[in-house]
Amino acid sequence: MAGGKENRVRVILECTSCVRTSVNKKLTGIFRYITQKNRHNTPSRLELRKFCPYCYKHTIHGEIKK
């Protein structure tokens, strides 16, 4: 009964408004959350409004590649 691919996958959500500078390059997303999503029901990238302790407010956290 098992399918070829698992429906639930682990995704990483990264803050889109945080910016840190290092070696003449700006990297976004200091704070990250790890969650799961159903690949069948949500094929597009996930975006959730979560709390970021570096911004000290609720911001949009978007799904990133591993």
From TrEMBL:
<comment type="similarity">
    <text>Belongs to the bacterial ribosomal protein bL33 family.</text>
</comment>
<dbReference type="InterPro" id="IPR018264">
    <property type="entry name" value="Ribosomal_bL33_CS"/>
</dbReference>
<keyword id="KW-0687">Ribonucleoprotein</keyword>
<dbReference type="InterPro" id="IPR011332">
    <property type="entry name" value="Ribosomal_zn-bd"/>
</dbReference>
<protein>
    <recommendedName>
        <fullName>Large ribosomal subunit protein bL33c</fullName>
    </recommendedName>
</protein>
<dbReference type="InterPro" id="IPR001705">
    <property type="entry name" value="Ribosomal_bL33"/>
</dbReference>
<dbReference type="GO" id="GO:0003735">
    <property type="term" value="F:structural constituent of ribosome"/>
</dbReference>
<keyword id="KW-0934">Plastid</keyword>
<dbReference type="GO" id="GO:0005840">
    <property type="term" value="C:ribosome"/>
</dbReference>
<dbReference type="GO" id="GO:0009507">
    <property type="term" value="C:chloroplast"/>
</dbReference>
<dbReference type="Pfam" id="PF00471">
    <property type="entry name" value="Ribosomal_L33"/>
</dbReference>
<keyword id="KW-0496">Mitochondrion</keyword>
<dbReference type="GO" id="GO:1990904">
    <property type="term" value="C:ribonucleoprotein complex"/>
</dbReference>
<dbReference type="InterPro" id="IPR038584">
    <property type="entry name" value="Ribosomal_bL33_sf"/>
</dbReference>
<dbReference type="GO" id="GO:0006412">
    <property type="term" value="P:translation"/>
</dbReference>
<keyword id="KW-0150">Chloroplast</keyword>
<keyword id="KW-0689">Ribosomal protein</keyword>
